[in-house]
Every structure is written in structure tokens, then in C-alpha cells.
Amino acid sequence: MPLEAISPRRALLAERIAPAWRAPLMQLALAWLAVFALFAADWAAMMLQWWNSSTYNHILLVPLILGWLVVQRAPELAKLTPRAWWPGVVLVAGVLFGWLLGDISGTATISHFGLVLALQSAVITILGPRIAWALLFPLCFALFLVPIGEELVPALQMITAHITIALTHASGIPAIIEGVFIDTPAGLFEVAEACSGVKFLIAMVALGTLVSHVCFRSPWRRAGFMAVAIILPILANGVRAWGTIYIAQSQGIGFAAGFDHIFYGWIFFALVMAALLAIGWKFFDRHVDDPFIDAKKIAEAAWPARLERFGGNGWTLLAACAATALVMLAWSANARGLDAQVAQDVALPQVSGWTRTALDQTYRWQPRTGGADRRMVASYRDGQGRVVDVVFAIYGAQEDGREAGAYGEGALPLDTEWRWLQSQDAPSGGAGDRLQALGTQQRVAYTWYRHGEWTGSSRLQLKLSNMRDRLIGTPQPTIMLILSAEETASQDAGAVLHDFLQSTAPLPEWMDDIARLD
């Protein structure tokens, strides 16, 4: 087909965009393209989570929802004029600095938030604060692109366990609860991580946020609907767990497990979602034809005008944002290349009153210390035959794949028979956990981290310490110490661990001596 035959059609397509919007939209597209291209590895990791983790599969729909939300506002947006805003470059620099902190500390959630916020900040920078106000809800809804929420699993496990035991007792079934384990006449049930309900809760919060915006005008009705969207899936998950236990009493655990997978996994929560919408249906107060924004009201608003005084050239601001991103990438590359020196000749010491032996465990327990530069494991036995297991790991740096405080690292080894039972008080600022395997094997584990002059169990503090060191270019090694003892008829785990700690030097000095730190 001749070129001149298609050129007019292309021209007509371009003319559908208001002249005032053509250059800003091109600049915004280039800014977003730069964010995607320069940080492609982070976006790829995020998208893999969307695709591979059932907890985050719903995020695959979020980009489509964002596009729909913008299209709904397009007729009113066309009545407004974008104005580039140079203070937005400061916002871009701030959120990319947040990405830097997450990247150098191996905290994917922080780096992912930084990149999503970078897209939002680019909108404010290139299109201006008035347009950003008009797009406020889509910009905020974009935060659902960040895969977050699995941190709620332990708390949701306990909530589900308490709801389940209450319903089990109410239905006349005798049961005993210990942590997340419920013992019934039909057998022992565990409220495992997969039964916490976190997947459904996260998806329901996203759905509730969208529905409350699209279908309600009253802020009170929106707040009420969101409260139901949060509470309903938590209660429903408790009912689900109770239903499995109730059915197992007459039909057996095998049948109950299959029923749970088919009915509860595919049908039950669809009914709960339908129930949520049915509850809110009669309270919807937004008409289907009501516009989402009022361009006239936004154009006449005085407060954006005060901000628009700090306008700038869109192309110049685009270049400034790109330069900022390149600086952050260079800073990250330099910081991630720093590793602390780790001594070669490290070994677990002798402890007065205790004899170091090979591992002596009734049931195998092997904590995870992925990526540690040095890892030492041994058992210590005293004159009474009591045994303490010691796991000592040293890391030259904290990053993806070698992070002491990462999810799945430490005292509770994933993909094993060991399960978290409940928290346990630990001395000297440590984190204490009571673990159980096979319904009969129990042990108590205390965990400490040491970085520089700090010793404790806060994973947040550990990350902050590593962020600081890498930012200023002074890496220090990180130490993880886990002390554990079995709980048996002849051995009180807490008492054994207390006596062992009394036989060592104060923990900070003891850990430094083992790692051969000056």
C-alpha cells in the first residue's frame, strides 16, 4: 500500500490526543521506559512473583485495572493542561534512594516499592501536581503492584487457630490447642502457613479498595465496606479450617483433606467474595454514569496553582530523572561490591562444664544459613547428659541469597517436618521459638544477630545496620547464633539453655571471639 494512503489515518489517530498532551505523554512514556529498562532485573523478579506465587496471582490483573481507571478519567483529563513540575525530580530522587536502600540491603519489598513510587513520581514530575490530583486513586492503587503481605502469615496462623478451636469446641468436638496445632479424636491438625488465609486476604483487600472507590461516594460507606473486606476473609478462613476438622471426625482426615482442596480451594472463597459484594450491593451510592473526577473543579482549585509556580521544561526534567536513576545504579553497584573480611580459622570453642561433640539429636534439625561464608554446627553435652545444639554462621555481606534475617532462614527450616509452635521468652534480647515435628518432637531455639557493636534479634535493626555500612562504604560482618535444646521428659529445654549461657562469656564477646573480630 502506498505510504500516502496510510499517512492520513496516522494523522487522524494522533489528532485524537489534545495538542497540550502530546509532548507530556511522550515524555512520560520515555520516563517510564527508562524506569523499566534501567531496573529490568527488579521488575523481572517482581513479575515472576506475580506469575509463580499463588499469593500474588491477582496482581496480574492490576495493570489492566489501572489502564481502565485512567480510561474512565480520560474525557475529563483532556480538559486539563499538564504542566511539568521541577520539585518532582526531588521526589524521584527520594524514591530511587529508597530503592537503593532496599537493593543494597537485600530487601526486595523496599526496592519494589521504590520502583512503583518512581513511576508515580514521574507522573507528578512530567504532568504536574494538578494532573496527579486528578489521577490520585489510580496512582495509589498502583501500590498493589508490590508483592507484599506474606509477612502477615504467622499472625494470621494464630488468629485462624483461635477461631478454629472456638468453633470446634462450640460444635461439641473435644480438642486441645497448642500453638498452631489442634489435637482432636480424629487426629492432629496443623494450621499451616498455607492455611493462614493470607492469599485470600491480600486479594480481598485489593478488591475491596477497588469496589469501595468505584461503587461508593460516601467516605463512611467506603470505610465500612473496607472493614468488611478485611474481617470477612479472616473469619471465613477460620470457618474453613473448622469445617475440615468437623468433616474429619466422621469421614476421616484423608476425605477431609480432599474436600478442603476441592470445595474450599475452588468454591468456598468464591462464595465469600460473592457474599462481600452482596453485602455492599444495597449500599452502593455511586451511579454508573457519575464521572470519577470533575475537571472544572480541579482546574479552578487554588492550591495546585501555588505548586505550579515551580514549573519546568519537561525534556529537561526527564533528563534530570534519568541522570538521577543512573547515579543510584552506580551507587548500588559500588555498595554491593563491598564484602567484609571473614577469618578463615574460626571454630566453636570449648565451654566450661560442657563437652563439644558431633551432632546429637533425637530427630534431625538443621537450621538454614544460606549464603554464609562460615558455618559451624555442633552439640555440647554436660555432665548430666543434657545436650545443647549450637549453630554459628558468619556473613561477609547481607544480600539476596546470603541474608541472615531473610524469610526462611534461621531456626525454622522450611520444607521439613519442623513447624513453628509458639514464641518463647529468650534472654539477652534474643528471639525464642518453640518448634515441633511429627507431633511429638519439640525443641526450643534462641536466635541472636550481631553486627558491629549491636547484638539482638530485630531483623529490621539488622537491615538498617547493613544499609548504613554499605551506604558509607564500611562493611562489617554479620553473625547469626542459634542455641537450641530438645524438650523431653528428662530435659527442660529452657533450663538447659539457661545453664549453657551461664557457662559462656557474655554473648557479644563470645560471638566476637569465635568470629575472631578485634
TrEMBL record:
The major lineage groups are: Bacteria, Pseudomonadati, Pseudomonadota, Alphaproteobacteria, Sphingomonadales
Q: Which organism is it from?
A: Aurantiacibacter zhengii
Membrane-spanning segments: 21-41, 53-71, 83-102, 122-146, 158-177, 197-216, 223-243, 263-284, 315-333
Its EC number(s): 3.4.22.-
Q: Which UniProt keywords apply?
A: Cell membrane, Hydrolase, Membrane, Protease, Transmembrane, Transmembrane helix
What is the recorded name of this protein?
Answer: Exosortase A
Q: Which residues form the Methanolan biosynthesis EpsI domain?
A: 318-506
The UniProt entry, under InterPro entries, shows: EpsH-like, Exo/Archaeosortase_dom, Exosortase, Exosortase-1, Methanolan_biosynth_EpsI
Q: Which domain of life is it from?
A: Bacteria
A Pfam short name: DUF3485
One GO term of the biological process aspect: proteolysis
One GO cellular component term of this record is: plasma membrane
Where the protein is mainly located, per its record? membrane
**Topology class, membrane:** Multi-pass membrane protein
The protein's GO terms of the molecular function aspect are: peptidase activity
Location in or out of the cell: Cell membrane
